[in-house]
Amino acid sequence: MDAEGKAEAASFFRRMAKLEDRHRAQIAERREQLFTGIAPTVRDVAAWGVEVADQARLKATLTQREALELALEAETRARDYYGEAVNYVTEPLVVELFEELRDAEIEHQRLLKLLLDKL
User: Fold this and answer.
1) Is this prediction's pTM over 0.70?
2) 75 is in which domain, residue-wise?
3) CB under 8 Å to 54, separation ≥6 — which residues?
């Protein structure tokens, strides 16, 4: 996106990648707090994720608006996922984590909408 004069959107996506890495670290940290020394019994080998964009819609000619709209859809799915996941856990640390992640996704949506409004 930088090469196409879309520096603001490119900067946003780089910032979002860092935030998503922070989410991954939060989840790993909470898991360690809850299950210290216990090896995971679930392998995450699926090529999917809560926030993965619709692969069929990704293309080399994706416009800035299309990229932001795809990102907004992914953030909405993530918000819905964490919002719903809270209903299936009772451990306070996990509830707190899911609520934090849900709220972060809401903030990401807000930021994406601001960028879309500028187009």
Assistant:
1) yes
2) 2-40+57-118
3) 70, 73
